[in-house]
Amino acid sequence: MAGEQQLQVLNALDVAKTQWYHFTAIVVAGMGFFTDAYDLFCVSLVTKLLGRIYYRVDGSPTPGSLPPHVASAINGVAFIGTLSGQLFFGWLGDKLGRKKVYGMTLMLMILCSVASGLSFGHTPASVMATLCFFRFWLGFGIGGDYPLSATIMSEYANKKTRGAFIAAVFAMQGFGILAGGLVSIIVSSSFRTLFPATAYDVDPLNSTPPQADFVWRIIVMLGALPAALTYYWRTKMPETARYTALVARNAKQAAADMSKVLQVEITEDQANAAGQPSDGKAVFGLFSREFLRRHGLHLLGTSATWFLLDVAFYSQNLFQKDIFSAVGWIPKAATMSALDEMFRIARAQTLIALCGTVPGYWFTVALIDVVGRFAIQVMGFFFMGVFMLGLAIPYHHWTAPGNHVGFVVLYGLTFFFANFGPNSTTFIVPAEIFPARLRSTCHGISAASGKLGAIAGGFGFLYLAQSRDPGKTDHGYAAGIGVRNSLFILAGCNLLGLLFTFLVPESKGKSLEEMSGENEVIGAEATGYNRTVPV
Description:
Layout: H1 8-15, H2 20-54, H3 68-96, H4 98-117, H5 124-156, H6 162-194, H7 212-222, H8 224-236, H9 241-247, H10 251-261, H11 268-274, H12 289-318, H13 320-326, H14 338-371, H15 373-392, H16 395-398, H17 404-419, H18 422-428, H19 436-464, H20 482-500, H21 512-516, H22 518-526
Helix pairs in contact: 2-3, 2-4, 2-5, 2-6, 2-7, 2-8, 2-14, 3-4, 3-5, 3-19, 4-5, 4-7, 4-8, 5-6, 5-19, 6-7, 6-14, 6-18, 9-10, 10-11, 12-18, 12-19, 12-20, 14-15, 14-17, 15-17, 15-18, 15-20
């Protein structure tokens, strides 16, 4: 049937064998996510150090801590920047092409990572304001990497292993988390050895050595290094064949570009046949009724699931160190020096990442093209909800002395099933189910919805997770609903995410053109018919 025909240049990519260039593309595309995860989780590690350095109160029985509005700003501005970048670069990637804007995002990340570590000022407020400024633009660059990296990898990959390749790009986040933890451990441990300090309750003034101000700066700036090392290769990546053939409508150029990097051969006749012009009837915009009819529910599904997942995922990350304190892994702040506290927080978070977070990513890489996106996402949301309820219902049991190991195991399992679940699949699916000319835009919208959830979780749970007893809250915070009730809310978010998953189609083993309906348009053009074929 005509509707089943595909562009030969694209079919060649769908059936191409896995080659060395695919793995090169994974590393080059994945460095943005490495930087993203490194930055986000490093900042969650250094916030207590920043509080001790810049907000020490003479005579206070507890070390200095960031005021709530400052902590919210440092965590929040990067999220807002990321959301903005996802929308802007997602749109730009469809407008100008993936390649033209791909180098911009990485360069922005490199420059702003370095600039964040060089945030100086005469007052604590000016240092924090400068840091927030550069973190916004760092987030803006990181945001652009979401739609561009996912779209580029999906358009390069063959349909048999496409899910694993996109998942592998996203899994670089796991290495970023680990690297952030390990760098923090090494730097804080080195400075702790070189510049010994007493515990705060012994000598408040000397518990934070002046050299501690270098620690957080070094850690933040080192995040730029992996991104800088891959910048050259990113600029040398050709435009994807699907964009060139389907959007720029130059299949001959698409064939030539792909032949340079992949061992696929497309004859000139095939390329010319692929480039037949359309009369435009099959072209519809993002805000058209036709898009709403074909893909409206799909976009709602990808956006809602990513939003709900990130409410749960990022709220946990942001108060993770406080959970460790509650179960006894990290002593009271006053009993430690500034660098000792940072070392212990980094060690605890790295252990969780090593045992729960990182393995989940790679389980997804191994199994996504075997069991499919839908099954992994449903399973992930289900088990995240179950384990959060397992934490919440007997919460007072877990926080009693001697029971903290079980708490940490369940907490680690929620991260495992987030990454072997919706944290990976919500990134993958939007890059597979929308038309080429809107693919980057729709992925950007879905990702921005997720980051909106991260903002809701990150800001909201800084306050909600505070103790219900006003006397036990963190300095500067009002009483909240407590960690236990917060976990009940997060479990509810996972249940809603599971339900919205049913709006998202399964894309395992199908070509991008089959998922978006472009194969039917192509088939119509190839036989001389110009029509819009319902999907």
